[in-house]
Structure formats: structure tokens, C-alpha cells
Design brief:
This protein is of the alpha+beta class. The protein has one domain: Creatinase/methionine aminopeptidase superfamily (Creatine Amidinohydrolase), CATH 3.90.230. The chain is built from four helices and 17 strands. A hairpin with a 6-residue loop joins strand 13 and strand 14.
Length: 261
């Protein structure tokens, strides 16, 4: 696990602000009739305008290379969806917009699932519960706590609402690399996993299915989908661990995060 000093965390804050700005601009473009390729290309332009680069473009896992600049996952796509001219957003869809950027050597990472126009009440409840679960997890990102305090808080919120947390993908540390230790599952007991220290930077990101928690991989080798075809939601913030409480560093300029007290 990596603990950074104040100067390093200042640089991470700047990188996180870039990611937050790009995400906010992209979400503002979401509307029926837009295709996800054009949305991804808008993200590329926003990233370049801010002097940054995409941290997921050409990201390698084995022999696979991710081809897009952002991750755009629609409806039953859980994570890592690839923008496509053929994927046109429709009224009632939901889309998870996941933006990870590299700025002056550091990573910022955040995600939001948003409705396309009006959605069914139960779908909106899924989005609301997933976002609330993220904040419940963030409240426990305090020095001295175990990672499991975050995990357990997320799991309780989600399962009490009748939804399922994904087991196959987890939150993670972040900094110079997109994925660093510790891993942060969205399930577990309060005493599980590593102990948090002041100065750690974490990506806390519940991924939640309306139905069962299982996933299947799409033909592109990247897109994960809910195994039962149910709608999925994904929210993520980058968070700095403090002794007195967490600091969310991917809040867009001019906006305020919910109180964490």
C-alpha cells in the first residue's frame, strides 16, 4: 500500500479535478439520440483541452488493448463498455460514464451512472441506492479503519435495498498507476482486509446489479454485462484518507459533495 506526502497528494488533487471536470462535461451531453462513440470522442477532446491524457486508452491486460478514451456502459453493461457509432442512447436507458485521466504524472478516476431522459422508478431507485452506498463507503475511509469498514457499509446499503453488489470488480488505490493497492471490495466484514493510513488515495466504486451479482464478458473481451440481463449502476469518487475523515477530491469545481458527517 502506498502512502504519499502532502506535496504528492496536492498533485493527485489536481489530477482528480481534471477527471471530475471531464466527467461533468460528458454527463451534460447525455441525451436520447446520441451515440456512445461521439460521447467518447467528446471525452477525448475535453481531456486534451485540459492538458491531460486518457489513462484507459491503450490500457493493456495481457494481449488485450483498450481502444477507447473513456468507459461507457449502457443498461446491463456493468463496466468497461466501448463507445460505438451503433450504440444510440434511447429514452429510458441509463449510461455509466467512467473517466480516468493522467495529468502531470498522476491519475484521477471517477464514474457516474445517469438516466437518459426519464427512467422507470425502480431503475432510478437503483441509481439512488448505488450512489448512497458509495457515500456510505466513503464515510469509512478514515485512518485506522480496515478496508472492510468501507466494503461492509456498501454491501449493507445495497442488499437491504434488494439489489446485488458485483463481486468480480472492486475499488482500488490510485496515484501514479491506475490500479494500486489496496483492493477495495464492495462486500465483506468490517474487520476484513488492510488497515487504512493517512495519505492513502482510494477509488471507492460500488458496481450494483438490479438482479443477481453475476457477470458475463462481452464478445469484445472488455465489456462486462450482468449475467441475468438486469440493469447495472456504477458510481465512483477518488478519496484521500484523513485522520479526521475522508476528502473527496473528484467533486467538480462549483459543486459540493454531500456532507459526510
Amino acid at each position: 500500500m502506498i502512502v504519499r506526502n502532502e506535496e504528492q497528494n496536492k498533485a493527485i488533487r489536481e489530477a482528480a479535478q481534471v477527471a471530475a471536470t471531464v466527467l461533468d462535461r460528458m454527463v451534460g451531453l447525455v441525451a436520447p439520440g446520441m451515440n456512445t462513440y461521439d460521447l467518447d470522442q467528446a471525452g477525448r477532446r475535453f481531456i486534451e483541452e485540459l492538458g491531460a491524457e486518457s489513462a484507459c486508452y491503450k490500457y493493456k491486460v495481457g494481449s488485450r488493448i483498450y481502444p477507447a478514451f473513456t468507459c461507457l456502459s449502457v443498461n446491463n453493461e456493468v463496466v468497461h463498455g466501448i463507445g460505438s457509432l451503433e450504440r444510440v442512447l434511447q429514452e429510458g436507458d441509463v449510461i455509466s460514464v467512467d473517466v480516468c485521466t493522467r495529468y502531470r504524472g498522476y491519475i484521477g478516476d471517477n464514474c457516474r451512472t445517469v438516466p437518459v431522459g426519464r427512467v422507470e422508478p425502480e431503475v432510478q431507485r437503483l441509481l439512488d441506492v448505488t450512489e448512497e452506498a458509495m457515500y456510505d463507503g466513503i464515510r469509512n475511509a478514515v485512518a485506522g479503519n480496515k478496508v472492510g469498514k468501507i466494503s461492509n457499509a456498501v454491501q449493507k446499503k445495497v442488499e437491504r435495498a434488494g439489489f446485488s453488489v458485483i463481486r468480480d470488480f472492486v475499488g482500488h488505490g490510485v496515484g501514479k498507476s491506475l490500479h494500486e493497492e489496496p483492493q477495495i471490495p464492495n462486500f465483506g466484514r468490517p474487520g476484513d482486509y488492510q488497515r487504512l493510513k493517512k495519505g492513502m488515495v482510494l477509488c471507492i466504486e460500488p458496481m450494483v446489479n438490479m438482479g443477481r451479482h453475476g457477470i458475463v464478458m462481452g464478445e469484445d473481451g472488455w465489456t462486462a454485462l450482468s449475467s441475468d440481463g438486469s440493469v447495472s449502476a456504477h458510481f465512483e469518487h477518488t478519496v484521500l484518507v484523513g485522520e479526521d475523515g475522508p476528502e473527496i477530491i473528484t467533486v467538480p469545481e462549483g459543486k459540493v459533495a454531500p456532507a459526510l458527517g
